[in-house]
TrEMBL record:
Belongs to the G-protein coupled receptor 2 family. Gene3D superfamilies: GPCR, family 2, extracellular hormone receptor domain, Rhodopsin 7-helix transmembrane proteins. InterPro entries: GPCR_2, GPCR_2-like_7TM, GPCR_2_extracell_dom_sf, GPCR_2_extracellular_dom, GPCR_2_secretin-like, GPCR_2_secretin-like_CS. One of its GO terms (cellular component) is plasma membrane. GO terms for biological process: adenylate cyclase-modulating G protein-coupled receptor signaling pathway; cell surface receptor signaling pathway. It comes from Clunio marinus. Residues 28-112, 124-382 form the G-protein coupled receptors family 2 profile domain. The chain crosses the membrane at residues 126-149, 161-181, 201-225, 237-260, 280-303, 324-344, 364-385. GO terms for molecular function: G protein-coupled peptide receptor activity. This is CLUMA_CG017405, isoform B. The keyword Transmembrane helix applies. Keywords: Cell membrane, G-protein coupled receptor, Glycoprotein, Membrane, Receptor, Transducer, Transmembrane, Transmembrane helix.
Length: 426
């Protein structure tokens, strides 16, 4: 008796991004069904009493008696939960159920998806897309303002511009990654170098975000603590550190993941978690820890400096409380600039935890809208920037009107003088 082959209803090589996994499952299914066929070589089934075993393109279903439902664990693909079960109906005539719209044998995989979790992921992704898009627009507008007004050029604004450029690149690349990689089938095939390069570039600019937040914290701390220092020289060193240090860690990560890791770590455009990801996590944790120390010392120094005029304030006890409020307000402004909201990121609740959804939504808001928050606080609401914008606004819109009004007055006076001269002659 010849061994049985299986039929498929889809073409995994052109549709599924999990092509290698599916091919392995197909081979295992063929081996399983052929073994079952050998076991039942001496058994004769009456026609219409069972449905032939089949590999449907994702899962393997054994021979199933008619009028029964065959259940198999959900495949580890896409958003499927492997602990759930997919099912296929064997009808009374010994044929697998066919979908009425396509007239093809159909397996019910809807039970493999946790729709509550699926909807949460969709909402979280929507927050990320919206936040990164708005932040990108705000950051680009901020950079344009800083570049347009030359009078704003100083060491502090130079650092802000580098930080904003890092934010803009990271936000733009994340949007490309989401729409081009995650929303398409680019993960197919064996040539994945383009998306691997995008993965590396995206993570480089992600590291530069934290590097520049560290540079901002170090600059503020150094200016407050060390009064006698060359700011221009400090800025040059920070520019070199902010753009070059992340490249060192990323090259080390790329070498380890590309040449030392297992084949499984190198699939799916390196999207899967890998032990070598810690090479990127370590500098991020270090930058947040250092910024936290910088912030604590900055607040201490600010409070000490604010206590001096407090003794000369009118009325006893009115100064310190106001100074503490000012220091607290300054601290809140520095939190998004230094990225200290990410300190809570490692404390992630486990799956199915009551606060998992809350954590995911808050993380999406803080990560995607950080660029908008920083651009608003340090550009749109900056006193120097607002003064320059108002000054330019008055020059552009009010001076032409004033000149026109003056010209009208001069013309009227001249006309009156000419008319008076004419009357005198008469």
């Amino acid at each position: 008796m010849p061994l049985r082959t299986t039929s498929t209803t889809i073409a995994p090589a052109t549709i599924d991004p999990n092509f290698e996994i599916i091919e392995q499952r197909r081979a295992e299914c063929i081996e399983f069904l052929d073994a079952e066929l050998l076991k039942k070589a001496d058994i004769t089934y009456e026609p219409g009493t069972y449905c032939d075993g089949q590999f449907d393109g994702w899962s393997c279903f054994p021979d199933t008696p008619s009028n029964t439902i065959a259940k198999v664990p959900c495949p580890p693909l896409f958003e499927f939960d492997p602990t759930r079960f997919a099912h296929k109906v064997c009808e009374s005539d010994g044929n697998w159920f066919r979908h009425p719209e396509t007239n093809k044998t159909w397996t019910n995989y809807t039970t493999c998806i946790d729709f509550g979790d699926y909807q949460l992921r969709r909402h979280v992704n929507l927050i990320y897309v919206t936040g990164y898009t708005i932040s990108l627009i705000a950051i680009l507008l901020s950079i344009s303002i800083f570049c347009y007004f030359r009078s704003l050029k100083c060491a502090r604004i130079t650092l802000h511009m580098n930080l904003f450029a890092s934010f803009a690149a990271n936000n733009f690349l994340w949007l490309i990654w989401y729409h081009v990689i995650l929303d398409t089938n680019i993960l197919n095939g064996k040539d994945q170098w383009p998306c691997v390069m995008l993965h590396l570039i995206l993570h480089y600019f992600l590291l530069t975000n934290y590097a520049w937040m560290l540079c901002e914290g170090f600059y503020l701390h150094t200016v407050l603590v060390s009064a006698f220092i060359s700011e221009q020289k400090l800025v040059r060193w920070l520019i070199a550190l902010g753009w070059s240090a992340p490249a060192v860690f990323l090259i080390f990560y790329g070498i380890l993941r590309g040449y030392v890791s297992t084949d499984e770590d190198r699939t799916m455009c390196w999207m899967n978690e890998s032990p070598y990801t810690n090479v990127l996590v370590a500098p991020v944790c270090l930058s947040m820890l250092l910024n936290l120390l910088f912030l604590c010392n900055i607040v201490r120094v600010v409070l000490l400096k604010l206590k001096a005029p407090a003794s000369m304030s009118n009325g006893p006890g009115s100064g310190p409380s106001r100074n503490i409020l000012q220091a607290f307000r300054a601290t809140l402004l520095l939190v998004p600039l230094l990225g200290l909201q990410y300190i809570l990121t490692p404390f992630r609740p486990g799956k199915d935890h009551p606060y998992e959804a809350t954590y995911e939504i808050i993380s999406a808001f803080t990560a995607s809208f950080q660029g908008l928050c920083v651009a608003t606080l340090f550009c749109f609401c900056n006193g120097e920037v607002m003064a320059q914008v108002k000054r330019r606004w008055r020059i552009v819109f009010f001076r032409p009107r004033a000149n026109s009004y003056t010209a009208t007055q001069v013309s009227f006076v001249r006309h009156g003088q000419a008319h008076t001269a004419g009357e005198d002659k008469v």
